[in-house]
Amino acid sequence: MVIPMQNYFLLITVLPLLGFLINVIFGKKINSEKFSGWLSSIFVFIPFLIGIKAMFEIMSLPEDGRRIVFNYFTWISAGKLTVNYSYLIDPLSVVMVLVVTGIGFLIHVYSIGYMHGDEGYARFFSYLNLFIFAMLHLVIADNFLLVFLGWEGVGLCSYLLIGFWYEKNFTGDAAKKAFIVNRIGDFGFLSAMFFIFTYFGTLEISGFLGQIAGYPVNNALLVAIALFFFLGATGKSAQIPLYVWLPDAMAGPTPVSALIHAATMVTAGIYLIARTSLLYVLAPYATNIVLIIGIATAIISATIAVKQNDIKKILAYSTVSQLGFMFIALGTMSFVAAIFHLVTHAFFKALMFLGSGSVIHGMHEEQDIRNMGGLKDKMKITYITFLIGAFAISGIPPLSGFFSKDEILYKTFINAGFLPYILVLITAGFTAFYMFRLVGLTFFGKPRYDANHVHPHESPKTMTVPLMILAVLSAIGGFIGLPHVMGFNVLEHWLEPVFKNSYALLNLHHPETEHSSMVEWLLMLVSVLIAAAAIIFSFRKYSKQEKFEDEKGFGKVLENKYYVDEAYEKTVVNPIFRSSESFFWKIFDVKIIDGFVNGIAASLSRFSIDWKKLQTGVVQDYAALAITGIIGVILYFLFA
Amino acid sequence: MIELNYYLVLSALLFSIGVIGVLTRRNAIIIFMCIELMLNAVNLSLVAFSSFLGSESGQIFVFFVMTVAAAEAAVGLAIVISLYRNKETLDIDKINILKW
Prior knowledge:
The complex is a heterodimer. Chain A is mainly alpha-helical.
């Protein structure tokens, strides 16, 4: 018997939700690490299998019709507003589902080992499952409101997991920071939805995109919607000016940093813009802003990463920088390149975060790379897999990062011009530089830790096996998107139905200029040379370094992250804090709000002083009133 | 043969006496008896109609009313007794806690 796909596809979100509920309700009672961990992992693995099934399902359809909508029920129906609870399967959502569940599963398994012995074990896995549940909604929802449900859900999980070790003060602060900064982005998302509903009367993604197809380019309304969506994207995907929460988010457990703050959740903004690509094709003003923000974020965070000493902070700024690369791709309207880099970045950044987790685990919770060194012999698997990740992100062929980054560089060159290209190229050089500073200081040189107390050791199998799988993916993942000069781009062909309309429109306005394959080869050579030079220079400089001096001059500015946090503190946080305390609390809330509410109550009680005397408490008075009423009614029927 | 109207007038009189008693008397037991009077005034008119219309349903209804009245008398008298035990009085002007 064949079960229709519509029925079991729902399991893709039901299972993680179930895992969440079981762990949250019974987790503590059952109190078994094996049960909680494996249950959650399996409830993510089955959705992964469903995702693969969905992939084959739409592969069997003709290319133009690769789009299945499962409408489960009407979620909200109020007046003009109808929102269906419906899932959309198309090539883009399949890619996202596979990334989320595939990497999610590996990180679940890794967490089984990493969180061993933690008091909140079941709580941890329940949050992870809740996150998968929300993230899947984000990527398979067919209307903006359902996307927003996932969007908020992942924000909540991010908050819960950053503050997972809530006994420590700073984790709570970091969690709050992430939540509040994201709220600013959510304002953008909401505003965009309000605009769409007001002017287009629908919240369905395809309905909205279908309606705007006929609009002129740079229509003010479309530019506004695009910018508001982009504001939302800058919040979730950590771009200027809202990137500040992501580095602090590293206060959470390392698997969380890998899953949420590197591989999946932070790509939500990229997904959103890719999903509404037609809007951005029609609003080049907004798209140019995306490009500028992308470049600025990429280069600023890459330079910050150069001078950080916390292993996770380096990776965090690297993530911000790589997300900048994806926005550069979106800004040059190369949506496939953005998704491609999203996928490969998910592989190698998850790998490196998990690797750093393994290092931290082996070093007994030490995170400062100045206190490491020489770990390559102590932690062989971690070292080799981490090295593969570092080569991949630096763009060394034939690893995955090379292909995706090169695609972005090439597209920047032909679509955006020479200056942006140079900036992106420099950023790519910085990437290789800070990555191999990290590798050199952590794994090479002499040990700088206290060997009497710290005995670095390799991590258990549940941690190293995911590392190895991710290392393989980071190594070969790039072959799904070979450049045209080398062969067939599978990913581009796969995603073609999704972006077909956008690209058709794009070619109408800016016919693609043909470039000789020589240019592409040349650009590739340049980027490889720059990456290799940065690697060699950085590795030479840092693999033998033993003494660390305080940073001076510009280095100090970089170490302090351009003092952005301090500037925000002075210009935004403190004024809000002070005005909240002196005006909004003590005057507005106490005097005006409370005064209003209490005033109504007081005036009512003054008004009722006379009237309450009607209540004598004597039964006979009530009876007399009742009888008068009855007589009144009888008279009414007799004479009226 | 007595006309139906006589019965109805008598019933209305009894009922009015009951109402006036409920509204004006101060002793809880007397009020209670006045309520019984009102019930039986209604019973009288029901029986009269039953006989006038040649239908039994009025009489059956009266039986029900009598049953309920008996139950009500039991509960009511019990309340009166417990009232007296608590307040040492049956003057309902003194039993007026049901107010602001």
